[in-house]
């Protein structure tokens, strides 16, 4: 499918493309799109086709399925294999390889795993199966954490006792900071995540311009949104400014959603550190349930193995997640590692950089001046 | 994972628990509106409002024009939208 069908949008894309080329001039800049949703948009719609040669987009770690370490998948599998336990999970996690195989493998061997759309659906499964204990495999950034928090509160309010949460919620700001501190990655600006920012707002990103001097533009998920955000970053760079700007004003408020943030704060607290696939341990980068909600915390109710599992040797997801390697530069990309039989997490989720490249076959950069019709 | 889709509130199912029925491309499902504010507050969601839905919860209230633009986008993203709509179809929030 092509980038845009409407002529008006086609004109806008062309206009933005020209504007970007003019702003960039002969310079070379590297920008990171933090969110996997943007990675998906960029490759699905061929956004890079409209970018000049000097502009490189680096794919960030904003895909919760991609950054979950193998040991946590093994823990989820351990939970699913416990007697009288049903593991309720988002569908995205099923194919993620753990050290002992995926949840899909576990399901095939008889583990009780239920795919749900919402943590509230997991709570419903618990109500319908009072003889079982239902563990919700909670993961996601701040977009998803308030839903888990609200569900725990509802379980407590309604006195549901056979329900708990295996909490793996991660935070975007510490991840961005870890990338900025990483010596092997030099970035000139950030395309900020859209839906995470509906919750946290734009203020938490202010350290990026203030401490690191880099522009940060929160963007929507339309191809034109991404192009516009790039143009806004370039405009800042050309004017010597570094600020947080909000391109996605139609959805994101500057202060985010204070009520959702309050719910997270009520139920969850920061973990001292958490392991991210590819990025290693990052301080204060994830959430766990507060002690007041310990009866809903699967980590307190079950003795999890919590083993640290190294990524397979062949897998270079870490380098891809840090933007050091392009997906197709990985040794096993498209050969040993495919969406059907993924070795690494970046090939699993549709928001993973490798899966996006694989599906849309964009191994080569094509350019705006390459006379490819819109 | 962080995909959120716009829907229109068509019914207040349970005001106390802030459960509303939302319609997304013809699919009608219950959604929790409790992330938008306390029950009974002035900023509570109303029938006819457009909301951005993620994992069974309304994350934000959006205006209709914005909702239409976002829906067009997701329909253009075809498969991601279809996956999300399929997942929503599976939901049975009470």
Overview of the structural elements:
The complex is a heterodimer of chains A (374) and B (94). By secondary structure, chain A is α/β, with parallel strands linked by helices. Chain A has a domain at 70-170 and 256-301: Rossmann fold. Chain A is built from 15 helices and 13 strands. Chain A has a five-stranded parallel sheet with strand order 2-1-7-8-9. Mean pLDDT of chain A is 90; it is low at 1-8 and 363-374. With 94 residues, chain B is an alpha+beta fold. Chain B has one domain (5-90): SH3 type barrels (Roll). The mean pLDDT of chain B is 83. At the A-B interface, helix 2, helix 6, helix 7, helix 9 and helix 12 of A face strand 5, helix 1 and helix 2 of B.
- State the CATH topology of the domain at 70-170 and 256-301 in chain A: Rossmann fold
Measured by residues with Cβ under 8 Å of the partner chain's Cβ, the largest interface is: A-B, 54 and 38 residues
Strand content of chain B: 35-45%
- CATH structural fold name of chain B: SH3 type barrels
Specify the overall morphology of chain A.
globular
Unreliable spans of chain A: 1-8, 363-374
Rg of chain A over CA atoms, rounded to whole Å, is 21 Å
Give, in order, the helices and strands of chain A.
Answer: HEHEHHEHEHEHEHEHHEHEHEEEEHHH
Characteristic terms for this protein:
heterodimer; A: 374 residues; alpha/beta; Rossmann fold; 5-stranded parallel β-sheet; 4-stranded parallel β-sheet; 37% helix; globular; disordered N terminus; disordered C terminus; B: 94 residues; alpha+beta; 2 helices; 5 strands
Summarize the structure.
Chain A has 374 residues and is α/β, with parallel strands linked by helices.
């Amino acid at each position: 499918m092509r980038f845009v069908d409407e002529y008006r949008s086609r004109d806008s894309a062309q206009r933005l493309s020209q504007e970007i080329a003019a702003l960039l001039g002969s310079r070379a800049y590297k920008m990171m799109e933090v969110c996997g949703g943007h990675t998906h948009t960029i490759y699905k719609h061929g956004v890079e086709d409209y970018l000049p040669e000097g502009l490189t987009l680096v794919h960030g770690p904003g895909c919760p399925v991609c950054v979950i370490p193998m040991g946590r998948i093994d823990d989820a599998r351990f939970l699913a294999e416990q007697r009288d336990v049903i593991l309720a999970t988002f569908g995205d996690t099923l194919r993620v390889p753990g050290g002992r195989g995926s949840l899909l493998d576990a399901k095939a061997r008889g583990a009780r795993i239920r795919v749900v759309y919402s943590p509230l659906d997991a709570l419903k499964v618990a109500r319908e199966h009072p003889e079982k204990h239902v563990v919700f495999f909670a993961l996601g950034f701040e977009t998803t954490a308030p839903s888990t928090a609200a569900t725990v509160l509802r379980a407590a309010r309604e006195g549901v006792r056979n329900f708990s949460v295996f909490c793996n919620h991660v935070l975007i700001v510490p991840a961005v900071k870890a990338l900025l501190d990483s010596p092997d990655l030099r970035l000139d600006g950030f395309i900020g995540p859209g839906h995470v920012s509906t919750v946290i707002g734009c203020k938490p990103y202010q350290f990026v311009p203030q401490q690191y001097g880099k522009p940060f533009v929160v963007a929507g998920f339309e191809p034109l949104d991404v192009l516009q955000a790039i143009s806004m970053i370039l405009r800042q760079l050309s004017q010597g400014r570094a600020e947080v700007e909000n391109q996605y004003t139609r959805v994101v408020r500057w202060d985010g959603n204070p009520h959702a943030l309050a719910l997270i704060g009520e139920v969850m607290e920061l973990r001292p550190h958490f392991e991210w696939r590819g990025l290693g341990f990052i301080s204060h980068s994830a959430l766990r349930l507060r002690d007041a909600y310990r009866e809903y915390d699967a980590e307190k109710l079950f003795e999890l193995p919590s083993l640290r599992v190294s990524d397979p040797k062949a897998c270079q997801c870490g380098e891809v997640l840090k933007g050091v390697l392009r997906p197709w530069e990985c040794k096993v990309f498209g050969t040993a590692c495919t969406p059907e039989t993924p070795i690494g997490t970046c090939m699993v989720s549709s928001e993973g950089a490798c899966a996006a490249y694989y599906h849309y076959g964009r191994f080569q950069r094509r350019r705006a001046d390459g006379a490819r019709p819109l | 994972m962080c995909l959120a889709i716009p829907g229109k509130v068509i019914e207040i199912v349970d005001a106390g628990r802030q459960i509303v029925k939302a319609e997304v491309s013809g699919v009608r499902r219950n959604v929790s509106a409790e992330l938008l504010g306390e029950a009974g507050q002035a900023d509570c969601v109303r029938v006819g409002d457009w909301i951005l839905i993620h994992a069974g919860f309304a994350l934000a209230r959006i205006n209709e024009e914005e909702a239409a633009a976002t829906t067009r986008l997701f329909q253009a993203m075809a498969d991601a939208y279809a996956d999300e709509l399929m997942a929503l179809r599976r939901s049975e929030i009470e």
